[in-house]
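REQUEST ID: PR-0412
SUBMITTED BY: lab tech R.K.
PRIORITY: routine
TASK: structure prediction, single protein chain
INPUT:
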Amino acid sequence: MSKIFKRFAAVLLVLTMVLPLAACKKEDTITAQQVQNTQAVTVGSHTLSAVMLNYFYMDAVTDWYGIYGTSMGLDLSKSLDQQIINETTGKTWADSFLEMAVDNIQSTYALYDLAMAENFTLSKEDQQDLDMVVADLEELIAYYTKLYSSNG
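STATUS: complete
OUTPUT:
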């Protein structure tokens, strides 16, 4: 279970600090704070921002594509919402990946809630590993902050 918490903590750090900067790079009228504060999905008592949902969405795309590649007709060079995978229902790849993202969010937060309810704590070794991940992410954040501030 500790690997899940490592991933969860790393994801939260990236999502709340790095991705909003990237989202604002292209669009001057949207601030990082606005992206972070946009509520996109609620799972139980947890409300996730558009940034968080986007992480889980892209994670679903890359995980699925890494396993199946193009064998099921997915073409990453085309818009996912224009690629219909079920002619009867009109379901697109975008719809499918959004469902996968929400399923993954539900699983992640169910584990998180269970761990919190049972006062789960990391071992000393796992905590050290997590601290290293956080340090690496802080370096990444500093890099992107410098990159985006120097590029206007």
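NOTES: Confidence is low (pLDDT under 50) at residues 12-18.
REVIEWED BY: pending
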